[in-house]
């Protein structure tokens, strides 16, 4: 496509040149002597071609006339935005000659276009749609004028082109002046502000409202001594708080706002209600003007202040609920009673400051008013934002004449003081004297009352026990224990707020009852809040004690319909939480009750298992991972009961630890393992080292070290023949006593290892101070290597810790060759697992060694 001094028309350029060449060829051929019939044919062809060229020139003249007849500027653009043609209206509008425009990029006419402005244009045109945009064009003299451009696509000589029609919007401002008469006749003040907050125009009503003549402010009165502006509460307004400033900054309308303007020279106070609306020019994302519409409410404000004063003296506030607009209005006194900083804008904000029972009562009352068109009177309890509780008497009814019941209004009266006085005598008989909260009898009475009412049956109980309370009580004395209970009570009360009822059940146990009808997840939310409240340790002088909570949750009716049953099941869930890992919460379930029955059955039989000779030891080899040679073994306990059958150690060991039977069982294991070491040695197998597991309950005083010394001496064994494995829990139970015990055991030559490292508490601070020899990689992580990235990362981390501290490393639970190769690659020297052998009887182990 070429750009020339002629208008661009369809079939221009190459087609026209071809036609001219063809006509010249015919003329030349007719000059030669030809047969008659051929000469006649050439003449006919020449005439037809000449006629076609004449018709084409006529079409071009019609196109040019039509193109120039369009009153709006029309431009033809190439695919890349080069101007190929422009009509006469465009020449006039842009104030440039056609030669100055054609062949230039479109940025000549619109210098504000971004570099990629054609991308959205072609995206729209390729969908077969018209692209419309408002932009600012520039004349030859540099003046700008707004236009609305409509663009469409067409093809010319096989190339994609754009036809763009620009409509001048300059006259829009002229049309808007027609509304000036309207602005001058209304009784609302109207002002137009520029971006510098200067007042461009103000209608007569604005001057009447200010009543200051030429003293009316020329700018928004943000600074200076002449004008003082305040909000509806009398607080000075900062510049960024003025509605006009906010409209410019936020680019959105600011709804009706009450502003006070005090003119110092005249000593006059004006109160206005002002609404501001931003005005955007075409193509702008920030407003360049702001309209303000305001009314004089000075008299109304004065009446309102007197009414508020009367309400304050009587401690009675007013409220109105507009159901249609979903808007709640509270008078100033009503806001003060409720402790609200700002008036709520919907009913939910009022409900949020009430407790769950009062919230439900008010909801039901509001629905009943609408349905029955009757009034209500309620006594409701809630909590202010300051944390102080309140009681209010709330009266409401449908406004007279409101047939659709869209507006409900009434009064709020503060009855906190008489209510508190009324409750004082009742509370003395129901209160725990140490903490000041409800006692056991009061909690049971309240719970029974709730459960006896079918509509309140959706109650939940949280049974809370303090972890490690006994440690503080024993170490620091009962006075410190009392202080801890008082602080714990405060933390729980702050965590539950008005959502639950707190009682001390005795000792270090608390109960929270809450309503779960309107929010089924409320018990879990309260449990989480209580758990978080106990994250900071308790401070006693310079010492800190971490005390956490174990919480059990039971719900009515599914978990019980009687108070004692519900409390018992919540207690059972709490016990399960404390048994599992403490510092959390557990829901009651029938499965939990079944496990409790099974636990009691196991624990009952476990006490007699030693006397009935039901335990035995098996020995799992520990091998050199590179050579496969057995270098040691681990003694594993097995229990077969006549009624229960074979039980896994992970089931009965935890029960034995809970009941304390693990101490007797541990002594038996120590004797049996050392007896077996001596027997193997006597059989010629050498001094085989045997590892046994030691429970944290065996670390009490110096009993463990003394016992190990006695058993080694009894069987004539060196300390190196024995390896003691213990879990990470030992690290945090009693650090000073543990350090002494470990030092004594190491002095005997006993090998000390942390079992299942990384699976429990991972108390690294203690790890670096304990005189231990090695770590054991847990089967929990070995089972996932080498495919599970998380398990691989844990194994690598544990190996790094062992290397850094100079500790030995043993991997347990190896079941595949791939796991063995992975561990060898990490530098783990020793391992055990089914890949090599399961737990073997002493006889089978002897065969493995020979």
UniProtKB/TrEMBL annotation:
InterPro entries: Biofilm_reg_signaling, EAL_dom, EAL_sf, GGDEF_dom, Nucleotide_cyclase, PAC, PAS, PAS-assoc_C. Residues 42-69 form a coiled coil. Signal peptide: none annotated. Residues 457-590 form the GGDEF domain. PROSITE patterns: EAL (PS50883), GGDEF (PS50887), PAC (PS50113), PAS (PS50112). Pfam families: EAL, GGDEF, PAS_4, PAS_9. Residues 376-427 form the PAC domain. Residues 599-850 form the EAL domain. Keywords: Coiled coil. Residues 59-128 form the PAS domain. It comes from the Bacteria. This is PAS domain S-box protein.
């Amino acid at each position: 496509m070429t750009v020339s001094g002629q208008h661009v028309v369809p079939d221009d350029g190459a087609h026209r040149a071809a036609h001219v060449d063809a006509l010249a060829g015919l003329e030349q051929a007719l000059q030669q002597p030809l047969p008659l019939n051929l000469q006649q044919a050439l003449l006919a062809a020449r005439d037809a071609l000449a006629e076609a060229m004449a018709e084409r020139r006529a079409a071009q003249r019609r196109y040019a006339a039509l193109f120039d007849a369009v009153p709006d500027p029309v431009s033809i653009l190439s695919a890349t935005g080069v101007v190929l043609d422009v009509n006469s209206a465009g020449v006039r509008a842009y104030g440039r000659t056609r030669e100055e425009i054609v062949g230039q990029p479109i940025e000549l006419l619109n210098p504000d276009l971004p570099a990629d402005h054609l991308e959205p244009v072609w995206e729209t045109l390729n969908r077969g749609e018209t692209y419309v945009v408002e932009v600012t064009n520039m004349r030859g003299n540099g003046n700008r004028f707004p236009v609305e451009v409509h663009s469409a696509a067409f093809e010319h000589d096989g190339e994609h082109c754009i036809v763009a029609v620009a409509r001048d919007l300059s006259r829009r401002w002229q049309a808007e002046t027609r509304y000036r008469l309207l602005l001058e006749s209304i009784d609302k003040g109207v002002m137009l502000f520029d971006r510098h907050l200067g007042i461009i125009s103000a209608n007569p009503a604005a001057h009447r409202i200010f009543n200051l003549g030429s003293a009316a402010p020329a700018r928004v009165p943000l600074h200076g001594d002449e004008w003082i502006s305040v909000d509806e509460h009398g607080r000075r307004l900062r510049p960024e708080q003025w509605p006009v400033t906010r409209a410019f900054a936020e680019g959105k309308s600011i709804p009706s706002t009450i502003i006070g303007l005090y003119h110092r020279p005249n000593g006059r106070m004006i109160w206005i209600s002002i609404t501001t609306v931003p005005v955007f020019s075409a193509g702008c994302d920030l407003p360049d003007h702001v309209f303000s519409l305001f009314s004089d409410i000075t008299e109304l404000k004065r009446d309102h202040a007197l009414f508020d004063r009367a309400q304050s003296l009587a401690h009675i506030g007013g409220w109105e609920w507009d159901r249609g607009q979903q808007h709640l209005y509270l008078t100033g006194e009503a806001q003060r009673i409720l402790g609200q900083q700002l008036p709520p804008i919907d009913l939910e904000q009022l409900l949020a400051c009430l407790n769950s029972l009062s919230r439900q009562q008010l909801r039901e009352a509001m629905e009943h008013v609408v349905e029955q068109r009757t009034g209500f009177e309620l006594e409701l309890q809630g909590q202010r934002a300051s944390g102080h509780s309140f009681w209010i008497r709330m009266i409401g009814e449908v406004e007279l004449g409101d047939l659709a019941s869209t507006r409900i209004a009434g009064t709020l009266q503060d009855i906190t003081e008489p209510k508190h006085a009324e409750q004082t005598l009742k509370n003395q008989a129901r209160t725990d004297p140490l903490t000041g909260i409800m006692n056991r009898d009061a909690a049971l009475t309240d719970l029974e009352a709730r459960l006896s009412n079918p509509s309140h049956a959706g109650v939940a109980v949280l049974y809370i026990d303090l972890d490690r309370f006994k440690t503080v009580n024993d170490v620091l004395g009962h006075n410190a224990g009392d202080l801890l209970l008082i602080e714990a009570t405060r933390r729980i009360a702050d965590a539950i707020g008005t959502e639950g009822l707190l009682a001390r059940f005795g000792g270090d146990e608390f109960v929270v009852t809450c309503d779960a009808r309107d929010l089924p997840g409320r018990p879990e939310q309260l449990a989480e809040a209580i758990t978080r409240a106990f994250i900071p340790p308790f401070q006693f002088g310079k010492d800190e004690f971490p005390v956490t909570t174990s919480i059990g949750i039971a719900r009515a009716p599914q978990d019980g319909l009687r108070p004692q049953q519900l409390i018992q099941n919540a207690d059972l869930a709490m016990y399960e939480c404390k048994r599992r890992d403490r510092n959390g919460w557990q829901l009651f379930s029938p499965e939990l009750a079944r496990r409790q029955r099974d636990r009691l059955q196991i624990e009952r039989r476990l006490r007699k298992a030693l006397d009935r000779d039901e335990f035995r030891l098996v020995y799992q080899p520990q091998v050199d991972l590179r050579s496969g040679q057995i270098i040691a073994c681990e003694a594993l306990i097995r229990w077969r009961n006549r009624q229960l059958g074979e039980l896994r150690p992970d089931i009965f060991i935890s029960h034995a630890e809970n009941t304390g039977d693990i101490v007797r069982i541990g002594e038996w294991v120590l004797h049996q393992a050392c007896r077996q070491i001596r027997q193997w040695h006597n059989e010629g197998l050498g001094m085989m080292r045997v590892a046994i597991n030691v429970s944290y309950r065996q670390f009490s005083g110096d009993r463990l070290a003394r016992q190990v010394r006695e058993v080694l001496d009894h069987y004539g064994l060196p300390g190196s023949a024995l390896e003691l494995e213990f879990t990470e829990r030992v690290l945090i139970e009693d650090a000073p006593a543990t350090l002494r015990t470990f030092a004594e055991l190491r002095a005997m030559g006993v090998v000390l290892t942390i079992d299942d490292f990384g699976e429990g508490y991972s108390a690294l601070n203690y790890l670096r101070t304990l005189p231990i020899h090695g770590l054991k990689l847990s089967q929990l992580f070995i089972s996932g290597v080498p495919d599970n990235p998380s398990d691989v990362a844990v194994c690598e981390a544990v190996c790094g810790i062992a290397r850094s501290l100079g500790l030995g490393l043993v991997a347990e639970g190896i079941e595949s060759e791939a796991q063995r190769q992975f561990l060898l690659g990490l530098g783990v020297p020793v391992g055990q697992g089914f890949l090599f052998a399961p737990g073997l009887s002493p006889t089978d182990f002897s065969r493995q060694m020979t």
